[in-house]
Amino acid sequence: MKTTKFEELPISEKLLKGIKDMGFEEATPIQTKSIPYILEGRDVTGQAQTGTGKTAAFGIPILEKINTKDKSIQCMVICPTRELVIQVADEIRKMAKYLHDIKILPIYGGQPIQRQINALKKRPQIIIGTPGRVQDHMRRRTLKVGNLQMIVLDEADEMLNMGFREDIENILEDTPENRQTVLFSATLPKSILQIAKEYQENPQTVKVVHKKLTVPSIEQYYFEVKKSKKLEMLTRLIDINNPKLALVFCNTKMRVDEVSDQLQSRGYFSDKLHGDMKQRQRDRVMGLFRKGDIEILVATDVAARGIDVDDVEMVFNFDVPQDEEYYVHRIGRTGRAGRQGVAYTFVSGKEVYKLRDIQKYTKTKIKRQSPPSIGDVEEAKANVILKQIKEVIENESITREINFIEKLLVDEYNTIDVAAALYKIIVSKNRKENIEEECDFGDTGAEPGMVRLFINIGKKHKIRPKDIVGAIAGESGLAGGLVGAINIYDKFTFVEVPKEHANKVLQAMKDNRIKGKTINIEPANKK
Ligand code: ADP
Ligand code: MG
Asked: The CATH number of the domain where 349 resides is what?
C-alpha cells in the first residue's frame, strides 16, 4: 500500500524532528492508516503484526495531542509486561526529544511502590504501565485520572491471553467516559472485539495484515523429523550454521524447560523465556540475549512477543505453532531491519497438516529440506577449524612450529599425515572440554548424579527447606522437584541439585539474597 511521509501528516515541527532523529523516513502502513484517525479524536481499533511500528502509531498522536500547559495525567498506555512498558516509554521519549514540557512515567510491578508514588507527584502527563500496577495506583488514588483524555491498550490480545481482562475492564470503567479509547493488537479475536464494542464509541477499525510476511529476506524451510529426534536436529542445525543469535519456539512452557535444559547440558549458551518466570529473571535473560552472552533463546510465543532484538539470524519452530498467526510472528523475529533471516520448522506426524494450513494462510511456500546428517555436522565443524588454520598461516609467524614438525617428517610420515593427526587431536580435545565443563565439582558427598552445595545460612536465619527450594527454583528456573536432599544446620545449609544443573544454579544464586541475607554458595567439600 501507499505509505506517507511524516511531513504529510499534521504534526508539529518539533515532533517531526524527533522522529527524523530516530531514522524513520516514511510512516509504516499501520501508522499511515491510524495516525490521522487518532489525531481526529476517533476511537481506533488497530491490527497489525509485531514489528510493524504500532508504538509510533499511537505514540505520535499522543505527543501531538498533549497540552503541555496542563500538568495532569492526560494519557495512559497499558501494556502487558514490564519489558514492553519500558520499550514503549523509551520509544515515546525518543520521539519527544524536542518537546520539553512533556513528562512520561513508566510504572510496573516489581518497582517499589513508594518510589512510583513520589514520581507520580511530579505530575507526569503520560503514564505507560502494566494493568495490575496502574489499577493499584488508581485505587490508592495516587494516580488521578479525572482529566484523562486518552487511553491506549497496546498488545491487547496479549493482555487478554495473560489474564488481564478484568484489570483492563476495571481501568476502563474507572476512567472518564468521554475519553478517547485506542486499541492495538496483533490479532483481533472475539474477546477483543467484545471489549471494543463495550468500551469504544463508533470505533474506526484499521487493519494491516500479513504485510510483513512477503519480506523476501526470510528464507523458510521445514524438516520432517520424529518427535524424539527434534533435539538432535536442532543441535545439528545450530552446529552447522553457527548463528550468532537464534530463537527457538516451543508451544508449551514445559517444552521450553525441557529444550532449554537439554541445550544447556550439552554446552550451548542458551536460556529460556516463559510466562512462569519472574520478571526479574526475564529481564536478566533478555539482557544477556541482547548482549550475545546467550546465543540461543528458547521461548513460548507469549514470552517472546513484542520483544525487539534486531540481530536474530535464525528462528527454529521446534513445534509447529498452533495458530497460523503465531507462525508469522515467530518468523518475523528474524530478518528484521532488512537483515537476512532464516526460519526452520520441525514437523512431525500430524503437524504436517498444520504446516499446510500455515502455507495456505500465509500464501508462502515453505521449502522442504532433508535433515542434515552427522557427516554434514562434521564437515561444518571441520570448516571452522580449517578456516582458523588458514588464518594462522596467512597472518602469523609459524617458523618455530615448522621446525618442530619437520622433525617428524622422516620416511614414514608425510605432511598430510601430520596435519590430519593434529586435526584429530584438536577435535577430540574440543569434545573432552565440553564434557569436563559439566562435572568438575569433584566428590561433594552427594548422591550419585547430584552435586551438594553449601550455603552460609541456616536455622539461625529462620531458614526452612521451602525457602531454599523457592530461591533455587525462582532464580535458576530449575524445577523445584529436581532439588534433592536439604540439610539445614545452625549457620549453614547443604542442598543437592542434579549435576547437569549445578553450574546454572551456582551462577543464578551467586550474590543473591535469601530472607534478606546476601548468601554465599559453593560446591561442598566432602568431609
Ligand atoms: P510493534 O509494536 O508493531 O511490534 P514497534 O512499534 O515495536 O512494532 O516497532 C518495531 C521497530 O520498528 C522499532 O524498532 C521501531 O523503532 C521501528 N519503527 C517504527 N516505525 C518506523 C518507521 N516509520 N520507520 C522505520 N522504523 C520504524
Ligand atoms: Mg508493540
From this structure: 3.40.50.300
pTM: 0.51
- Look up the domain containing 315 and give its range: 218-372
- Mind listing the pLDDT tens digit for each residue in 247-281? 999 988 889 999 999 998 888 899 999 877 887 88
Give the span between the Cα atoms of 155 and 259, in whole angstroms: 27
From the alpha carbon of 310, which atom of ligand 1 is closest? 14
The pLDDT confidence band at residue 66, using thresholds 50, 70 and 90, is very high
CATH number of the domain within which 490 lies: 3.30.70.330
| Residue 28 pLDDT > 50 | yes
Q: Which of 200, 217, 182, 202 is nearest to 54 (CA)?
A: 182
Q: How far is the CA of 53 from the centre of ligand 2 (A)?
A: 7
CB of 29 closer than 6 angstroms to any ligand 1 atom: no
Quick check: 244 and 311 in contact, CB under 8 A?
yes
429's torsion region: left (phi>0), alpha (psi -120 to 50) or beta? alpha
In tens, the pLDDT along 390-400 reads: 888 888 888 88
